Amino acid sequence: xxxxxxxxxxxxxxxxxxxxxxxxxxxxxxxxxxxxxxxxxxxxxxxxxxxxxxxxxxxxxxxxxxxxxxxxxxxxxxxxxxxxxxxxxxxxxxxxxxxxxxxxxxxxxxxxxxxxxxxxxxxxxxxxxxxxxxxxxxxxxxxxxxxxxxxxxxxxxxxxxxxxxxxxxxxxxxxxxxxxxxxxxxxxxxxxxxxxxxxxxxxxxxxxxxxxxx
Length: 214
Fold this sequence. Notes:
The protein is α+β, with helices and mostly antiparallel strands. It contains four helices and nine strands, in the order H-H-H-H-E-E-E-E-E-E-E-E-E.
């Protein structure tokens, strides 16, 4: 008996290479796609908050047209916040679309290309080291760099009865200094996983590495 292989659907995540107008347009499409969508009833980001951030970024783009450094800095900060929300929503959509392209596209996200190109799939990254931070409730997570990775998603969750609880995902644009995770509960063991994002989308999540917060 043969089983048809389902190709995983990865969202296109190159938001940081987009113009401000393109980021705004994609965010608006995602908001429209997810609002009232029966296939995605519990999005990772509150859609009312997401809409407010879209409106804030749109206003910031207009304010930055005068060229003032303060307005441009504010606009760039709002852009980064909006991109982070979009990445969280993309992870949610990827996990809940059932690798069904018809369902996936209702979300407003675009799938990463599956056509042949000169780009090669990324090697899955690994969490190579976790050390305690300078303060209680902090863990510094170091990830092995992957060639051609544009960024990395790091997620962590408190362990309970041997299983991870709800995941929290953070984006790393560089792994040189690692990522400091704070506000952790002392005495609690946390699991950490990482994946790399590149031209063909994201890799699978790495195996978990655990560490107790002190």
